[in-house]
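Exam revision sheet. Question 4 asks you to relate a sequence to its structure. Input first:
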Amino acid sequence: MHSPNQFKVNEAWIVFRLNDAPISTERDGDFNVLTIMDAASRFILGTEFVPVSSIEASQLESRRLLKAARSHKAQLPRKLLLPDLIVADTLKKEAESLGISVIRVPEEDLSVFVEEAREGFREHVGGGRTQ
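Answer key, structure tokens:
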């Protein structure tokens, strides 16, 4: 089991799905919210809305997510932790091309990091329909 105190700020980032249920929009359909956070501080560095119809984030979406995170820290981490339940081959490839080591971990091992963010998202968004 991983914990925030075993990392230094910007040593490792975590990518995870923020929403429990798809976010629905009338105009563009349903989306999942892919989120990247610093493991030590649990600060959210970026989000990317990925169509539910996509198997995984595209190359462009993966690059934007990593770029958003990098813009907050002005550097890249040594590690990227990815839950084993999400398909993220493209994101893995993009991270590795930047010299980031990608580590697959069981989803439950990340709950200490991501549960507060998910709870806050549930409270503010509630999974309702947006315009």
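Marking note for examiners. The mean pLDDT is 91.
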